[in-house]
Amino acid sequence: MKHAYLILAHNSLKHLELLVNAMNTDAAEIFVHIDAKSDIGQFKALLGTKVHFIEDRVPVFWGDFSQVEAILRLLFAAKKFYGGFDRYTLLSGVDYPIRDVSYIENYFKKNASVQFMNIVAVPSSVVRKPISRFVRPRLKIRRISRNRAFEFACTALERFLPSLDYRKELDGRKPFAGSTWWSISGDACDFIVKTTNDHPELLTYFSKTQNPDESFFQTILGNSPFVASIQHNLTYADWSEGKRSPAWIKQKHIDLFTMQNPLLLNDAYGEAEALFARKFADDGTRLVEMIADGYESAPGQ
Description:
The chain is an alpha/beta fold. It is built from 12 helices and 12 strands.
């Protein structure tokens, strides 16, 4: 199988190098989108020819359609390479594999037709995916500031704007949502690319919605024949701190990976084995080394 690893990054240069080195095999190609707000030169200098950098970059903002734009540019770039891959796996620059890459590639080979993507029909109170994500418009002026007070004011203002007619905009499609990170088959990727090309109105609509990185791809595959092959995604994240981003990986997490190997994820999205974890700090080299040291003794490696 030919694997395309698609990485969204904006900082954590040292850790990104560790991630790229870990996923760099004869069967894989690595595509990286560096946030246009970041200096790509330092990344190219460190990673050299190991990766394919997306040159036509976009400035990426949290909860914004710019995340979908960056992911699509990764997908389209990878799709053109070799004429396509058997498997496309989306990672962040602060992810790291918790299983050896040979194990991961064999896992994908055994599950070649499975789409690993967190997905639920919206609205869903269980995973807090309200229909407001499809109805309440998102102001693009959010992009000009990361100030919490400004974001709070934008959120308040958005509640008074005219609602989006998601039924009309989706043209009969049902709304779905989930998590940003996924791994899909080549056929599913082809379907996403074709749908995006054939229905540019979907891009226009989702560019006005809340957190589209968690709903654009889910809605496309949720309304396709691939919905029957969707399972829980493969990325472990610790949300126990109740923040809008997961906790940093610490020693307690490494202990968990060691004690529970394989590490099974089981929640409202279903069940799957965790192959990756996020998020690692740029100074987390020691933790990464401990994971790598555990590859040899892990069962099934």
